[in-house]
Structures are given as structure tokens and as C-alpha cells.
Amino acid sequence: MDDYRNTVCDPIGRGAKRAVVVGAGIAGLAAAVRMHRAGWEVVVLERAATRRSSGYLLNLHGPGYDAAERLGLVPALTPRDIGFFTSVLVHADGREKFTVPAAVAQAAVGERALSLFRGDLESVLYDAVAGHVDIRFGTTVRAVTQDPGAVEVVLSDGTRLRADLVIGADGVHSRIRELVFGPESEYLVELNHMVGAFPLDTVPEHVAEGVGTTFLGPRRTAAVMNLGPHRSSAFFTYRSPDPAAELARGAAPALTAAFGDLGRGVAEALRQLAADPTDAYFDSVGQIVIDRWSSGRVVLLGDAAWCVTVFAGYGAALALDGADRLGTALTAHGDDLTAALDSWEQSLRPEVRKRQALARKGIGRFAPPTRVHVWAGDLMLRAIQLPGIRGLVQRSIRRANN
Ligand SMILES: Cc1cc2nc3c(=O)[nH]c(=O)nc-3n(C[C@H](O)[C@H](O)[C@H](O)COP(=O)(O)OP(=O)(O)OC[C@H]3O[C@@H](n4cnc5c(N)ncnc54)[C@H](O)[C@@H]3O)c2cc1C
After folding, report:
1. What is the dihedral of CA 283, 307, 112, 57, to 10 degrees?
2. What is the rounded CA–CA span in Å between residue 381 and residue 9?
3. 204 CA from centroid of ligand 1 (Å)
4. Which site in 124, 138, 155, 220 is 20 to 30 Å from 161, CA atoms measured?
5. Residue whose CA is closest, atom 5 of ligand 1?
6. Which phi and psi angles does 46 have, rounded to 5°?
7. Nearest ligand 1 atom, CA 174
8. Residues of the chain with pLDDT > 90: what percent?
9. Under 8 Å between Cβ of 117 and 54
């Protein structure tokens, strides 16, 4: 029997309500920021022993930027903004096809946009709560039980914590979801693609500074960004009929098998990955589809609840927005937790549904299925540089963002 049954339970403090947040990623830290601001006592549990590295590049615009603003993050995020960069589309051997200037991407998304490393966004969130909330690294959850008055979690170190609310923000492979809602297989919808992304320790020699080179399919995409020291990174995605087999191979062997024939920056990035795969993100692409995001005093947030995937380019935005709206709903409904969680879920569902649908539709842009699709994609990228067409594309991107 688990020895936690004999340990002392840390009770809920008098006065402030207590939230236990599981996961110190974007969703968990944003929840900590928002719940602390709403006057809750917050404990954050993070499985990793330390904070994560820079990770990969992500964009915040539209509602994602708005949520960052509401959370008070924009002043600290702005100095970390990478900005837009020139994209060079290349052939498999690295020869240039054509260039898409930074100004084209900038015009498409507008002024209210940030391009950030995931680690920079997490750092800004962490700095906003460090010293105000209890953050425990190297700690996870073994069990969750509820009674009408509270929820109790048993931690990996045997400690028990009672709380008013548990927020499961522990990512797409959420342990909280598994403990409270059931096995991942019931909720994960595989999109049969793999994604790999990692920071580059040394600047890629074969890619000019301030430039990202992109090789586009069929069935795969590779991009290498040279944005200077400590800011360069690589991104890969490819179609796979058997994601489990790819995961079993591991990031470096799998990505080398899928992209090892490509030249220039890609070969360099793969060499760096093989030398040190520690900071690489490598996973299959799958959406989480679940009928309800809360059960009693346990609520899921971020990828744990609704992973929209990299193909939506919107998961970080929804994590921030979801955390901010959760704080607002809990404040508005006072002691009526069920009403708060209901209204929170109703306010977010339509956006999540839309982003999941857009992601499924957008797969072909990331990994065009055939040469004809590659050719059509190239044509569109060339066309958006024409002023008339650019206006049309701008309007459709802004419509999707609103
Ligand atoms: C390559 C790539 C590019 C992307 N680009 C964009 C973009 O441009 N714009 C955008 O908005 N989104 C983007 N996204 C999506 C976005 O990064 C994610 O949706 C977001 O990071 C999800 O955050 P999260 O906190 O929900 O989950 P995660 O980032 O997975 O964080 C979960 C945290 O929980 C911890 N954890 C896991 N299990 C446990 C446990 N049992 N106990 C305790 N802790 C645990 C983990 O260590 C981690 O710290 C991209 C994603 C990828 C992969």
C-alpha cells in the first residue's frame, strides 16, 4: 500500500482559497499568475527537476496577444520578441527557390503580434509569480480524490495537499486527465504526423543571419532559422502512418531517417541534434477531444484539455486566454465553483472547436501530400507578394484571428 496514507496532510489555509496547479508550462504558469491575482493561494507542481530550455519559436497574435496583454505580460515580452524574419524556400539540395520578405508576414498578422521562444514566454510567466506562489520542481501527482468540501492530491514525495481546485495543466499526455477522466486513448485523436523542434547550440553556418530556410514536402517540412547565437532553431514535421514506431526510435534517429537527404542547414541541424538531443521536442501530433474539461474540483487547462496542435499555431494563445478566463469566471461566481467552471467552458469551447478544425484543415500546408500540393503552395506563397493578393490574404488571416 502507498505510504502516503500515513503522511500528514497539508490543510487548506484559512482565508484564501487554494489551487494546486499541475504543470509549469505556459498554461500552468499563466493559471498561477491569474489565480494569484484573483487572491488564491497557489501551489504549482512540476515534474521536471528544473525549468525548461528555450524550446521552439511560437507566435502570439490576435486573441493570444490580447490575452498576454490582459495578463500584464506584454511589457516583459516585448524585449524578447524575435520579430519577423525573411523566409527562403529551398529545394532538397538547399538551392534557393524564392524568398518571402519579413514584411509580407508582418503585414499579414499586423502590429499586435509577438514571435517568442516558448522558454522566454515561460520565463516571463515564471518571473511574474516566483516569490508569490509555491513552485515545487521534481514533483508530480500520484493520486487525486475528492469529497464535497475539497480535493486532495497525493504528491510523488508522499505529501498530501488539500485544495479547493486542482488545475491539470500538464500537457497533452496529462497525468491528471488520466487519473480523473480516464486513459489517454479515449481522448487523443492522432493526426498521423510527427513534429520535432529544437534550439541550435551553434548558429547554422549555411543559413544567412536573419533568415529562415524552409523545405516544403511532399509529406514533410523542414525549417532552419538563423536568428543569431542562442536564438537559432530548427523545426521538422512529417507524415507517418505509425507514430508509435517513430517515437520508439527517438528524435535524432527518426528525424535523420526522414530528413537526412536534405542539404545545407538541415544537415547541420540534424548533426547538432544527434550530438545533444536533450532539449529537443519530439512527439506525434494529436488533438485532445473531451466532452467536459472539469470534473468536480478538477479542471483541465491548455494542451491537457484541448490540444489544438502545432498545425493550429494557437495552443499557447489558448493556454493564456483559458487561464485568464478561468480567473475571471472564478472571481465572478464566488463560491459557486460549478457555475464558474460551466461559464468558463462555454466561453472557450467555440474558439477551441474552431482552432481544432482549422488545424485539421491546415495539415496540407505543413506537410503537403503530393508534388501538386507543393507546387500549389509555392504558387500561393509567391502570389501573396503581389500587392492585390496580399490584401486578400491579410484579410483572410485577420478574419481567422478574430
Ligand atoms: C513546434 C511547435 C510550435 C508551436 N507554435 C505555436 C505558435 O506559434 N503559437 C501558439 O499559440 N502555439 C504554438 N504551439 C503550441 C503551444 O506550444 C502549446 O499549445 C503550449 O505550449 C501548451 O502549453 P501547456 O502548458 O498546456 O503544455 P506543455 O507545454 O506541455 O506543459 C506541460 C507542463 O507540465 C509538466 N508535466 C507533465 N506531466 C506532469 C506531471 N505528471 N506532473 C507535473 N508536471 C507535469 C511538463 O513538464 C510541462 O512543464 C506550438 C507547439 C509546437 C510543438
Report:
1. -10
2. 59
3. 26
4. 124
5. 58
6. -125, 125
7. 38
8. 73
9. yes
Candidates 263, 268, 271; CA nearest to 90 is 263
pLDDT of residue 395: 63
Asked if omega into 148 is within 30° of 0 (cis), the reply is no
pLDDT tens track for 18-57: 999 999 999 999 999 999 999 999 999 999 999 877 788 9
Statement: residue 1 has pLDDT above 50: no
The pLDDT tens digits for 302-313 are 999 999 999 999
Looking only at the bridges linking them, the beta strands covering 113-117 and 165-168 are: unpaired
On the question of a cis peptide bond just before residue 253, with omega within 30 degrees of 0, the verdict is no
Residue type, 203: V
Output the residue whose Cα is nearest ligand 1's atom 13. 313
Q: What is the DSSP letter of 293?
A: S
What lies within 8 Å, CB to CB, of 200 at 6+ separation is 224, 232, 233, 234, 269, 272
What's the confidence (pLDDT) of residue 263?
82
CA distance 383 to 394: 12
How do residues 147-202 score in pLDDT, each as one tens digit? 989 999 999 999 999 999 999 999 999 999 999 999 999 999 999 999 999 999 89
Q: Which atom of ligand 1 is nearest to the CA of 30?
A: 25
- The rounded Å distance from CA 361 to ligand 1 centre is 21
The protein residue whose alpha carbon is closest to atom 53 in ligand 1 is 310
Ligand 1 atom closest to Cα of residue 58: 8
Measuring CA to CA, how many Å separate 74 from each of 70, 107, 124, 206, 310? Answer: 9, 20, 9, 34, 23
Atom of ligand 1 nearest to the CA of 45: 43
What does the alpha-carbon distance between residue 277 and residue 28 come to, in Å, rounded to a whole number? 25
Q: How far apart are CA 87 and CA 93, in angstroms?
A: 17
Which residue of 43, 46, 278 sits with most ligand 1 atoms within 8 Å of its CB, as the best mutation to test the pocket? 46
**Closest by CA position to 234, among listed 270, 190, 188:** 270
- Of 282, 310, 352, the one to substitute when testing ligand 1's pocket (max ligand atoms within 8 A of C-beta) is 310
* Number of neighbours of residue 119 by Cβ within 10 angstroms: 18
